């Protein structure tokens, strides 16, 4: 898909990866970028169309789809990471994690699939994780949610093939954003700009599964062996 002239909508565009997506899309010549956020007053990028959007609120999703009927690229970036395990973690936080990553992404796709179809097919980019393929003791609810989002991505790809919509998943590991800086040093994490550029190169090339770093490649390779977890400490130790 050609991004020059495209109309994109990015969820969670007020900071970190979402903000980088919106900026890079403008840099690549997108005709319009809807930078959406639960708190739109925090969007500070010149040149974007700001829209309020909470992906877990059906009325908010419907309102965004009603306004943004010209979208040709949907970037499902919004995410949360509550750091909860499955057996003894707070069940409301487990549900909240799935609400954003799985049900939120699903709600956006259900609302925007007709829009994309009406505009010639377009593309959906779901921002996944190496934890779509690996568990992570301490944040297993997040891994479950990202795994579900990966399966969702593959199912939706089949369902939207008939209308010509490219459905891509972006897989990568620790990246220096606000959330991650509390866990690991910048020196061992990806630069968010590199991840966003690789992702958008993948969309322009029509790639269905964009594996953007070694963490993603290692996680995919690990699927061939016995199930195992990701250990963030190895990342942190590598910095020392
Ligand atoms: N950073 C990494 O190492 C890494 C690695 C792999 C995958 N990812 C994935 O990449 C994506 C972005 O990560 P990030 O590190 O940039 O995250 P982040 O810094 O935590 O930012 C998350 C963004 O999502 C928004 N958001 C949260 N809940 C939302 C909701 N219900 N509706 C709309 N927006 C909502 C946040 O808005 P508020 O500002 O209002 O909270 C914020 O703009 C996520 O899907 C994450 O799972 C990140």
TrEMBL record:
Family, as annotated: Belongs to the short-chain dehydrogenases/reductases (SDR) family.
SUPFAM superfamilies cross-referenced by the UniProt entry: NAD(P)-binding Rossmann-fold domains
Keywords (A to Z) from UniProt: Oxidoreductase
Any coiled-coil regions, as ranges: none
Entry annotated with the keyword Cytoplasm: no
Keyword Oxidoreductase applies: yes
Top-level taxon in the UniProt lineage: Bacteria
Protein name: SDR family oxidoreductase
PANTHER family xref list: OS04G0390700 PROTEIN, RETINOL DEHYDROGENASE-RELATED
InterPro entries: NAD(P)-bd_dom_sf (IPR036291), SDR_fam (IPR002347)
